[in-house]
Sequence to fold (104 residues):
Amino acid sequence: MPDKATAIFAQRLKDARAMRDVSQRALGAMLGMTKKNGSVRINRYEQQTSRADMDTAAEIAAALGVPLAYLFAEDPGLAEWILAYEKLDGTLRQEILDSIRTSQ
Fold:
């Protein structure tokens, strides 16, 4: 039985591909895999029959334009926050961080 991290990664990978409208085959090609191997490999990650190592997960995140942390966020709300945070400019990010630090 797959562990929790593998299940979370599988779901976030599916979500990120859907968000970017990228097929398993296309994602595999973006990662430099052959059409057949790429599709099979991404499918195995999503079906939780294989586990991506951290380097591969980072390559997948970069290819899909999502932060690596998004692919491992346990809570769906946190996953959304991670995506939203990435869209903020540096000044606004700093203001939010400062506000959080002062409220603790």
